[in-house]
Amino acid sequence: MSKCPQIIQLSQHLNHVSDNQRFAGANQKELTNGAINTVMLVKKINPKIHFQFVISFGQCVEQIWGYRQLLAEVEELRKTTYDADNFRHEEKLYDLWAKLMPNEVLDGRITKQWQYIGFQGDDPKTDFRGMGLLGLENLLAFATEYREAASHVLSHSHHPVYGYAFAIVGINLTKLAWTLLQQGDAKTYFYNTARNLPTIKLFHQFYSYLFYEFDRYWLECKPKDIMEFSSIKDSFESNVRNALQDPTAVFRINLSVDTI
Fold first, then answer.
1. Reported pTM
2. 7-33: b or e for each residue (b if 16 or more CB lie within 10 Å)?
3. Where is pLDDT greater, at 258 or 241?
């Protein structure tokens, strides 16, 4: 909101750098120090008197433009279409199966087995349209970093009464996590959790928490059938947004599962 030309220029430069995902490494340190020095010069702040300013403002710069950079990184993944001819994409998909179903071998690339982990048809690639590669990255991170929790949730998805499509629900929750990030509601979580720059790993952790908690909430609601998904998801989203309004909010998957 500053009207000072130097501050405006500084802000615009930091925006450009973070939007292009170059706020990292040695560049990050140089930019942060440059921002501190610019503000101290313009505002006539004496670092010998206000020594805490250098530390506190530096952390603010890292958090604010780190969050903006994370937005750009997440958006790039969301816009990346799943490509069955891309070896890395296919490798991630097979890895997802291996993490969730370690004791069952796939019959082939296109098979009804995918429906067991919650994809709609025989070929999972069609389900990634809405959230692109981000949907797969989120599912794989949940299954990798929180393997026991993911297995726990997958077993619930096969409940004879309250079952649901694990992967499809997961992709819907990717959209929720992305929306909360885009709209800024998630800043509370990232600012309270990240020691320095918010990273994509932290976004995956945020997503994993949402998936784990949604599963718990879904079972608590005891839905009559899957047709209640939209209303329950909306109610869950409202609860999450309310929780994020708490300035001390830090989400974490249940410790008893998280540490297995």
1. 0.93
2. beebbeebeebbeeeebeeeebeebbe
3. 241
Q: Which residues of 204-243 are buried (b: 16+ CB within 10 A; e: fewer)?
A: bbbbbbbbbbbbeebeeeebeeeeebeebbeebbeebeee
How far from 145 is each of 54, 80, 137, 197, 253, CA to CA, in Å?
A: 35, 23, 12, 20, 11
Q: What 3-state class would DSSP assign to 211?
A: helix
The rounded distance, in Å, linking the Cα atoms of 173 and 153 is 14
Q: What is the DSSP string of 59-70?
A: HHHHHHHHHHHH
Residue showing tokens 């300035």: 247
Over the Cα atoms of the chain, what is R_g? Answer: 21
| 251, 176 Cβ separation under 8 angstroms | no
CB 154 within 8 A of CB 117: yes
Q: Per-residue pLDDT tens for 158-181?
A: 999 999 999 999 999 999 999 999
pLDDT score of 259: 36
- φ/ψ of 23, rounded to 5, equals -95, 75
What is the token pair recorded at 8? 């405006």
CA 130 to chain centre: 16
Which pLDDT score is estimated for 257?
Answer: 47
| DSSP alpha helix (H) spans, the chain | 5-19, 25-42, 51-79, 87-100, 132-145, 147-157, 166-183, 187-193, 200-221, 229-244, 255-258
